[in-house]
Design goal:
With 262 residues, the protein is an alpha/beta fold. It is 47% helix and 16% strand. It has one domain (7-257): Phosphoenolpyruvate-binding domains (TIM Barrel).
Amino acid sequence: MSAIPNHAKCRLAAGELSLGLGLRQARTVDTAMIARSCDFDWLFIDMEHSAMDVDTAAQIAVAALGAGITPLVRVPGREHHHATRLLDAGAQGIVVPHVDTVEEAERVVSYCKYPPLGHRSVAGAQPQLGFRAAPVAEATRLVNEEVLVVVMLETPQAIANADAIAAVKGVDVLLIGTNDLCAEMGIPGQFTDARVEAAYETVIAACGRHGKHPGMGGVYEPALLQKYIGMGMRFILSGSDLSFMMAGARERTGFLRALKIQ
């Protein structure tokens, strides 16, 4: 028996870029198929900065499993039930915002992983296994192997603790939330500031030492994407449904407004 593969994890294991699409506006399950057709590896189903509820996020997650794209959910906080309900409903990974300390990272792992890695409560048949029956020991092992645990570092304190956080067993990705990090540093929106680059270097180095994967979000300027990927970033939140829709819409109206009409 096998679990539905975690495509985000497979890309990272192969040393390739793992590309995600943020979902804030989308509410329909066909979004998963659309994102897959655009060659994204994972969905970043955002429950922190949207009004999306658990049921909607779960429906999109299950649709993603069938479409061949990995559903990851950014939960709104660090309470265990924020994560476990989505994991039971089809998510293959959880992104937890505002993780500043080793203790917080350890708690994230504890509720995202089944024993012996964590203390997640054992559920019944799960979508990640195609609802196939399996011995509990096998089912929990398979699900543990495919769950991606992503902690977001969004403060100077988190960056300072990056090495210790990267050492936490069960954490897979350290994702820099660049917007919040800049705001906390008193340089909102200044993504080219030397302190931002230093934070990226710190996290990339910490991940390298502990066999984890560095990730980035909030930076979408092509030159900066190229720069930070060149430095070693691999888990890339590539943009959101809202930003792509607005960019495409602005391009079209700009073209049409510029036309000369008779």
